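Hi support team,

I'm filing this because I wasn't sure whether my run with DAU finished correctly. The job status page said complete, but I'd like someone to confirm that the output block is well-formed before I use it downstream. Pasting the exact inputs I used:
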Amino acid sequence: MKKILITGGAGFIGSHVVRLFVNRHSDYHVFNLDKLTYAGNLANLTDIEQAPNYTFLKGDIVDAAFVDGLFAEHRFDDVIHLAAESHVDRSITDPLSFVYTNVVGTANLLNAARRTWQDDLPNHLFYHISTDEVYGSLHNPEEFFTEETPYDPQSPYSASKAGSDHLVRAYYNTYKMPVVITNCSNNYGPNQFPEKLIPLCIHNIAHNKPLPIYGKGENVRDWLYVVDHARAIDVVFHQGKPGETYNIGGFNEWRNIDLVRLLCRIMDRKLGRPEGESEKLITYVTDRAGHDLRYAIDAKKIMHELGWKPSLQFEEGLEKTVDWYLSNTEWLTNVTSGAYKHYYQGQYESR
Ligand code: NAD
Ligand code: DAU
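And here is everything the job wrote out:
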């Protein structure tokens, strides 16, 4: 059985990727390495935690000695690297954490993988998960991000992700390490930490709290259901060409204000409120510093070359997401109160 290391598997996207690999690929033993920061939550994985082909490893990718030791012990065959500090607003107040985890952490993983694989490099794959934010902001409505769009990161978060992408490419060019990178648009769906726009608004609507819209709400994001992203990662892992980049997105652009209004209408219906009730919670607040205007992914390469396409229409995915949050109030209460940390971190620290 081959061994795959998935980093950041207790987070939002990582947990969906871990579940998919554990359930679909019995030829792999899945090792989930996660530091369990505020964003990591093992409650995301209770359904697969007893699976025979799954092991959780708690640890910090910034700790080079720890990462080296882990590779020496387990000799992973392949890596899918998702662990990161992921929230743009946090990167504005605390940029260094993003440099450590996203840049140094990625470098540590690349180094350990190179050392472990040096005698048979072509038999391995280092798959790095990145973001469309590295391309910067689009201002011409006709334009899309393609794999050839030059990098132009604007926030400390996107700059740190761009730095990690460059390192991964450098390992391909310099050491011939087989690597692949995907740059995906905004994800939404179950298990997303409620600091991000969609779960934050679902939580606040349910609790009659203000819905903070940065600036005029005219910024555009391109949304993809998280399970469709996990499916794309599976396809790229198995069929992607080493050295290549693939953009992932659903051709699904929304202005923030229109998206929040749609969410309000869905929530009114689900909560039995009069139409228009939740929209009254919309509150315009000071804009995010350096707020990118528009992201839009051209996903034709992955669609044409690897045959992937999204399975869900946006309204359908949003309904599923709302239903998940409304029927998992305990998950939401635990993450907003921080209660899950005490239980899960205590459990693993004592081992
Ligand atoms: P997340 O914040 O929900 O999860 C990140 C996970 O990484 C958490 O479980 C956290 O505990 C872990 N982690 C953080 N620092 C670590 C460290 N030093 N060592 C080990 N583990 C650590 O993030 P997400 O939204 O699931 O994003 C996952 C990846 O996908 C990131 O690389 C992100 O840049 C990328 N991405 C995210 C989106 C999106 O819309 N969320 C879109 C495109 C790409
Ligand atoms: O594009 C991919 C990126 O999408 C990922 O790389 C990031 O990890 C992920 O966090 C996400 O970044 P965004 O900054 O686009 O996501 P966020 O949910 O924070 O914000 C979405 C949009 O909504 C953005 O234009 C800012 C705005 N916003 C956000 C919040 C949290 C608000 O207007 N109000 C809010 O309270």
